[in-house]
Structure formats: C-alpha cells, structure tokens
Amino acid sequence: MKFNELGLNESVLEAIDHMGFENATPIQEQAIPFILNNSDLLACAQTGTGKTAAFILPILHKITGKEDTSINTLILVPTRELAIQIEQEIQGLSYFVSVGSIAIYGGGDGQKWDGQKAALVEGTDIIVATPGKLLSHMMQGYVDFSQLEHLVLDEADKMLDMGFAEDIERIIKYLPAKRQTLLFSATMPPKIKNLAQKIQVNPHEIALSISKPAAGVAQRVHLCFDEQKNALLKHILELRADYTSIIIFTSQKSKVGDIVFYLKRNGFKNTEGVSSSLEQDQREEVLRGFRSKRTRILVATDVMSRGIDIKEINLVINYDAPRDAEDYVHRIGRTARANTKGEAYTLINPKDMPKLARIERLIEMDIERMPMPEAYGVAPEWQVSSKPKSNGKGKKPFYKKKKTNN
Fold this sequence. Notes:
21% strand; Rossmann fold; single chain; alpha/beta; 7-stranded parallel β-sheet; 14 helices; disordered C terminus
C-alpha cells in the first residue's frame, strides 16, 4: 500500500516524499489507520520493519497546525541512543510540518540539563525520553503533562528487561487518563500483556514476524574456540573488502577496546568502538563518524543493538553470542533493513553452544555452519540431538562434544 492511501495529510505526505519513501511497510499499513482513529494499540514487530514511522507519521498528522507549545506526545524508550535516533527521525519527517521535539536522556553535562529543562518549561510538541532522566525532571515540578494526548512506549520489552517498570508506572500517574496509548515491542512475553492491561483501554493488537530476522539477512555461524576468534574475524573482514559499513557486537564492554586494538593493528584503520564506558558526546561523535562512512567498522555492545538506525549496513558480526536469543534478532536487525540484503556472522565457542540452540529455536531455522579455514587449526563441533519432553509438546536439546577438523 502507498502512503497516500492511508489518509495522511498533504504536509506529512510531502515530508515522506522528500525522504524518498513511497510504499508503507506491513506494520505501517496496519498501525497507521488505527492510530489515526485514536485507538490504543499493542503492536509486536521486529527491528527494521519501520515501526518508528508507524507511530510518528499519524501523530504528526494529528498535530499538524497545532498552535500552542504544550506537550502533546510522550515517547518513552529504553536507551539514550534510541531516544536520539527517534528524535532525529521526527526532525526528518516533520520537515514540512511545524512540530517541535526534544530528546531527554542522561549522560550529559549541566548545560544539556538546562537545555532539556528550558524545553520542558516552555513546552514542546513531542518529548522522546528515557524513563529515569524524565523522572528526574518531573520531580522538580516544572513538567506539565495536562494537555498530553499520546503516550508511546517503544521497545517496551527492553524497558522492562532493564528494570524500568516502576519508573514507567510512576510517570503514567502524572498523565491524563484520557489519552491514546501505543505500546510497541519486539517480543510479546506475559509481562508486556500485563503492562498493556494496566495502561491501555481495549487496545487493537498487531503481531508481525515475532522475533524473526529479516528475510534479506544471510545468517552463518563459525564454531570456534576463543583463541581462534580474532583470526576468524580478520578472515571474514578480508573477504569483504568492498563492504563500507560493518558492525561487530560483543556482550562485554571490556572487549570493545581489545577488538578495536586488534583490528587497527591488523590493517583495519577505520575502526572505532562505542559502549557505555564513553561519555555521551564521545558516543555521539563515534556514531556520526559511522553514519557518514568515515568509520567503516563499529565495535559495539548490546546496549547499542536497538539504538542504531543506519541504512546500508552490509555486515553484522557477533563476536560472541548475546545473552538472550531475542537480542540476536536485534543485533542482526541492523542489516538488511527496508527490504535490502545483508550478512550476519556469529562466532560460537563451546560454552555458547546452548545459546545458539536457543537462538535457532526462536527463529525456527538452522543457521548455516561454516567450515574452519584449515590454517586456523581444529574447531569444536557438536552433535545436537533432541529428546521430546514428557508432555510431547516440545524438544529439549542436549549436546555431545567432540573435536574434529571441519
């Protein structure tokens, strides 16, 4: 379906056209009409499906021509990176619509706090915020939500995983009871359903491709020992010298610097790392370099996996398996966005084999195993069998390890 068939006004359509979009994604096609109709919405859609525009576009439509500066929309997100990303997308989409917005997040200096306070005191149409930092401002008594019409919780599952449930409930107590509440989540565990029951009224539910990677991602895995990972990483990168945008994910921020050092020492000079160890202005500068292609390879932690919205990322490499299977989907969701193609490699050591099994159960497919290059020695290999559980409704994997040359 084309955007001009969804009932959006001319100003919003002009902004969409300016950004080069024509056809709506499935989540946009399904969500936008219900949001325009002021229905509460509970939507489950994976990373890279266009869900941010699915709620921004109809909200921009509804507040086009708004004359006052009262806070109309609050968007709560789990990380500062996602807050920045969404606020930038609002700025891009509101190019032809007179709408003000600001991102509220921690990690800045006193000057940034003062700028956030000024925007909250004077009022702005859309606030994108992390719960903790927004509460810090709210406790000062100058935030007025009395005119708020829209509440959006984006990446709601991640916010609950990060322990923001209590902060969210405290914030909602300050909001008008009569409002439209939109809840977007990449997964739909019972805790999300429970949250929806507390804060929404008869929500319409949409579920698209729950926890499945985009079809355009070619997924592969290398079974290896830890001491083989760096050589494998170098091998994969050398075979893709024409790739201009690559992300390497690691589960430990302590590894970021080590990986960057190794790659730079081995000829990959345009490599930078980003993690919570950096100050916010440093993190933003690294991401600017990656977006502009000045930095070819970005090494990042999981905190970045839901906060990077950069087009045309060619390759994602998981230096190690993520803690949760759902995070695997978010990591590799950085590539093959908007119906493009991409590659994802995962390096799996013996202790991470159970994580690989959980990932494959979640995405309902076997990931292609790649042979170990002969020069790098013997690789671990597992035979994975399964026995049915007593209720006969599922399978529980067990592992038998053996060493062999691939």
